[in-house]
Predict the 3D structure of the following.
Amino acid sequence: QAQFGYDRLRYFQPLKTPDAWWLMGFYAVTFGGFVGLAASLPIYFTDRFGLTTITAGYCTAACVFAGSLVRPLGGALADRIGGVKALSAVFVVAALALAGVSAAPTVASALALFVLAMLALGTGNGSVFQLVPQRFQAEIGVMTGLVGMAGGIGGFYLASSLGFAKQLTGSFSAGFLIFAGLALVALAGLILVKARWRSTWTSGARI
């Protein structure tokens, strides 16, 4: 029984390494943003533009479909150009799109920007998982679970933050700007670690 307990604790050894937390943080932004937006968009479209729940649902479905469709393409892109380059582009595009959403004047402009943001975040989801096995080959199972958990937590936080922004300011704009800021923080973190990753990871795949 003691051995079983030790084995379970051993599964969480990756959490002692900074790289695990970086990867979890990046996924909290990409997948968390994707989930948070998917949960919040129906309310946003009905509240901001007065759409019916059915029309708002169609708009949300278009955004979610776009982001889901490109997830495997994001992994393929990361294989081709490297996960760090792919994620860097993802965070820039997502930040710009979400900052634009905060001031979008029409349904069409908001929808276009949301689709762009979801395309970027979906690409980012695939890109993160291109990086995970390069660093944690021996712990890929538990790291997949930990990174996925971080994404779920990020989704809860981001959806809640949009609700708080609406409650406190009467508008969703502040929430989208905060989300754009988080994408830029993630970009800064990626810039901080990329040189070390490229010099110390030895998987042979593009980083």
